[in-house]
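Long-time lurker, first post. I've been practising inverse folding by hand and with some scripts of my own, and I keep getting stuck on stretches where the structure tokens seem ambiguous. Below is the full token string for one chain I'm working on. Before anyone asks, I'm not after the true native sequence, just a reasonable design that respects the backbone. If someone could post their per-position residues I'd love to compare against what I wrote down in my notebook.
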């Protein structure tokens, strides 16, 4: 049945960030109709990511206010704009911050996931026309976030940022694959291409670091070393395959790289930096094995941060240093594989969800993430929504 709201603006509730670092306000907003190459999505549930905290706290661009944050989500297509034939009303979909147009040379290549048609940027508007689809109750513009803006009942997303999802996966698990878990698992699977029997070192055991461990476990790594200053992270890490733990605070006589080089008889095959500190990237690179060692950077550092890497390590030791945006994944082709892995009980998603609550409690969820008391908190808009039943999704 055609949507009764198609072709009309929708009034709905959203969590609006009006000032940096201040609690979000639950407000009624207006969501415009989708334009050409856009879809309007009813968000079923959304999860919180540290990138949301970063953008929420910035007082200067790319911090923009008032703004609707959020980018880990899953929902139902409510209506489609002109020229959209890839999606239809009622499709179970996932919005993703990284574009995958499918037509440019990068999207057609298996060597890159960096779309050339809609390159990644920290814009606060829609990607094609740099305008907003949100207004508040006074008619004033509200900014977008990471091309998704999921802290609202309805959002408008470009088709290059949307992929269909197997409706057998519950929405409170599917939303995790919009960013963090996919980034970590993909970094091990796609970017590093971790091989069976290898040794892995992970700097930072937050959600992304643990997702790297999960990806490395799936790929068959036999030694997965977690580095973190919080010893409680090791117990959590065991669920995702972490076999060894290093707390840098326990041994001040040796650097972490020296300890790992000794533990691995010359360095780890693969090292992952998941915190966002140039000093940790340098440590990871220093304990990366000569000849074939690869260091993958996932953490987002401060603007204008620089790396000090030994040219000797690069030239004489053949080490590789690379970044990994969204884990090297292409949303429209690779997300389906991760969903299948979950449905086949190969990928552990359940263990990442430490809290679930109503959307109205979003500020409590922010506090939990700020205090380091959760991996992922899933927010539900309407658990009783009939759309859930019609798509075969389970209740949490």
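-- Answer (accepted) --
I ran through it position by position. Result:
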């Amino acid at each position: 049945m055609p949507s009764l709201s198609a072709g009309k603006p929708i009034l709905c509730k959203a969590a609006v960030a009006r000032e940096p670092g201040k609690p979000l306000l639950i407000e009624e907003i207006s969501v415009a109709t989708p334009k050409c190459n856009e879809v309007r999505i009813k968000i079923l549930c959304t999860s919180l990511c540290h990138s949301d905290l970063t953008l929420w706290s910035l007082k200067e661009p790319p911090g923009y206010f008032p703004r609707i944050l959020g980018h880990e989500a899953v929902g139902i297509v409510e209506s489609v704009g002109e020229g959209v034939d890839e999606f239809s009303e009622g499709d179970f979909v996932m919005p993703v911050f990284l574009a995958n147009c499918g037509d440019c040379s990068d999207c057609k290549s298996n060597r890159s996931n960096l779309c050339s048609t809609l390159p990644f940027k920290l814009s606060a508007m829609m990607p094609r026309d740099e305008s907003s689809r949100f207004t508040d109750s006074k008619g004033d513009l509200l900014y977008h976030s990471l091309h998704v803006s999921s802290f609202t009942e309805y959002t408008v997303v470009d088709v290059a940022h949307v992929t269909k999802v197997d409706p057998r996966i519950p929405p409170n698990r599917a939303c995790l694959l919009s960013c963090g878990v996919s980034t970590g698992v993909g970094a091990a699977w796609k970017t590093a291409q971790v091989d069976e029997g290898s040794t892995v070192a992970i700097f930072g055991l937050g959600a992304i670091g643990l997702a790297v461990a999960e990806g490395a476990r799936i790929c068959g790594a036999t030694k997965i070393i977690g580095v973190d200053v919080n010893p409680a992270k090791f117990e959590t890490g065991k669920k995702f395959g972490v076999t060894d733990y290093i707390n840098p605070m326990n041994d001040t006589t040796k650097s972490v790289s020296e300890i790992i080089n000794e533990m691995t008889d010359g360095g780890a095959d693969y090292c992952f930096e998941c915190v966002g500190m140039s000093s940790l990237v340098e440590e990871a690179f220093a304990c990366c094995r000569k000849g074939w060692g690869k260091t993958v950077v996932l953490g987002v550092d401060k603007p204008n941060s620089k790396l000090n890497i030994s040219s000797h390590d690069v030239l004489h030791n053949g080490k590789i240093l690379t970044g990994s945006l969204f884990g090297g994944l292409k949303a429209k082709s690779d997300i389906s594989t991760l969903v299948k892995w979950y449905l086949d009980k190969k990928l552990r998603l359940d263990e990442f969800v430490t809290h679930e609550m109503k959307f109205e409690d979003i500020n409590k969820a922010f506090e939990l993430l700020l205090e380091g008391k959760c991996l992922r908190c899933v927010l539900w808009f309407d658990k009783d929504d009939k759309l859930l039943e019609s798509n075969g999704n389970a209740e949490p």
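A couple of notes from the structure itself: The first strand starts at residue 10 and ends at 16. The CA atoms of residues 25 and 61 lie 21 Å apart. Happy to go over any region you disagree with.
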